[in-house]
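G.,

No rush on this.
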Amino acid sequence: MGFLISSHSGHLCVDGKRVLKPLTEGLFPSDQFCDGDLSIPSTDRNILTVSQCFLDLYINPMGMLQEKRSKGKKWLHSTSEIEMKFGKSSPAKEQESPLKSPTPTSDNQTRGWHLFTIHTLHRFFWKDFDCIRGSRKLEETDDYHWWMENSNGDMIDLTEEQYRITKIPTLRKSGKKLLPLGHRYSATSKAMAHRMTELLSSNHYDASMIDQHANAYMKR
C-alpha cells in the first residue's frame, strides 16, 4: 500500500494526517524550467512542495466553485471562472506569493478543482504518475473523480475531500488510466503550471516554451 497525498481544509496531508507546510518559493534553481520542461523527480519533497504550491496559489484563495446547470436539479463544478482567471500565462506577481495566501474559509474547499489539479500536477510528475479516472459517475456532480497514481500505488489526490464530505466511500475504486484531456484543460493547466514554476524558481521566463498538450510534453 502506497502513500496518499491529499488535503483537508486547505492543509496538505499525508495518509490523512496534516503535515508541516513545506517552503515553496525559490526552491529550484532559477533556470530549472526555462526550457519548458517542467518534469522533476517524484521525490517526497518535490511532491509535497508542488502540491502545497498549487493549494496556496489556486485552491485556497478561490475556494469552492459551483454553478447551477441550466436544466435544473444538479450542480456542476464551475470551470469558467478558473479559466477566466488563469487561462492565459502571465508573470507571477509579488502579491501571489504562497506565503501570503489567505486562510481557507469554505467547508468544501476543493470542490470544483479535481481536473485542473491533476492536469497541472501531471506536468511535473508524468514520468512516474498516471492520470486515473474513477469508473463510476458520481450522481451528485454528474462527473467522474480523477487522481494521480504510480506503479507502487502512491496517490496524489488533493481534492478527495470534496467527495469525503459527501460520504462517497469508493471514489477511487477500479480506476482507469487515461491521458490528460485537451482543449481548455491543457491550456489552463499550462498557464497555471507556468505561474507555479516562476514562484518555485523565483524567475520569470517565456511561457511559450511550455508545451500545451500532453502528447507533446510527455515526449520531452
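When you get to it, here's the other one too:
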Amino acid sequence: MLNALLSQTAAGQAAEAHRHAYNAAFEELGLTWYWDASTYARLQAHGREGVRIYLETEQSHLLRAYEAEFLVGAIETTQARCYASMGHRAVQAAYGWIGDSHLPPTSRHNATSGAPAHRAATSALT
C-alpha cells in the first residue's frame, strides 16, 4: 500500500513538472497560454494530440499564420528542453512553482530595465 501511494505521488509530481514545463515553453515561445492542472489532465488523455486539440479548439487563429504541425513541434520541442533544464528542480516545480519561477532567481528580471527576463526576450512566434 505504501509503495502504491509513493508511486501515485511520484506520478503526480512528474505530471505537474511536465505541466510546468509546458507553461514555461509557452512563455518562451511568446504564447500567452497557461494550462492549469485540469486543462493539462484533459489534454494529456489525448497524448501528443492534446497540444493539437488545444490549438485547434482554443487558439485556432494561429492556424491562419502557422501550420499546426509546426506549432505542435515547436511547443513539444521547447517543452522537452524546458523539462530537461529543470533537472533536479522538476520535483520542486510540482510543489507550486508558478509564473516565471521556472527561471533561476538571477534571470527572472532584466538587469537594465527590471522587466521580467522572459518578457524582454524577442518572441519566436509573434
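The radius of gyration is 16 Å. The chain has one domain: 2-120.

Enjoy the weekend,
O.
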